[in-house]
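Quick one: structure for this chain?
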Amino acid sequence: MIEMPEAFTLARQMNEALTGKTIQRFEQGELRHKFLMMDRPVEESNATLTGKTISGASSYGRSIYLNMDSGHLLWFAEIGGRFLYHPAAGPLPAKYHLRWDFSDGTSLSFTLQMWGIVRLIENVRPGEKPAKEVGIPPLSAEFTLERFNQLLEAYPEKNSKGVKGFLVTSQHMNGGGNSYAQDILFRARLSPKRKIPEISAPEREQLYQTIQETMRLAIGAGGREDERDLFDQPGGYRRMMSSQTAGSPCLACGSPIQKIAYLGGACYLCPQCQT
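Got it. Here's what it folds into:
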């Protein structure tokens, strides 16, 4: 699943590789996926996008934006899949879900692995986010400690679900997900099951700082090592809490890292350090 560090990395690479390219054709591959959600038929999108020139790419939390010189915006949200850039005269993937061909012979393909939302928005100014975008990215100027505390208090399930539920809900904090939430909670020394009302003011400040620290580290590394960038290269961020480290000694205390079932999925933690 693409989270904020991967979205930032992909958007930066798209901005460098795709800006100035003119779309020659947009098509859907032979693969079909019931969780690929598009707001209009491919044929309509192709008719709209053909002849448009990409003016830039950016990210907002877990979303990726591709701006056109016409004011159109391609919005990729909640993406669990892979984008790949294909040079001119290079081989194209045999299987893909979506592909954009450019007038210079290069292409961009997208292959869905989990789910994803693709929307084509009209009349969007550069730097403007879609009206339906939600949440606050944790490295934005708006994400202050005061605003973070407000988001914690506004979390509707703060009394029934642990703090991990807040961290993976993009409607509040748009950027993290299950992959980074576990490292964030380990650095903050918090159990994923801790209820928000039970977290003290100093612990909240520590959590706020570790969210930003983890995001910066992962962005600096180009995303997680189990995700790949626009040029099919893996990221450099190795998670401390994951299926790969389960049973290994905790880096802080040496206790075995445990796997537990929580909120409908697997969760990894140090039972000694995280309370």
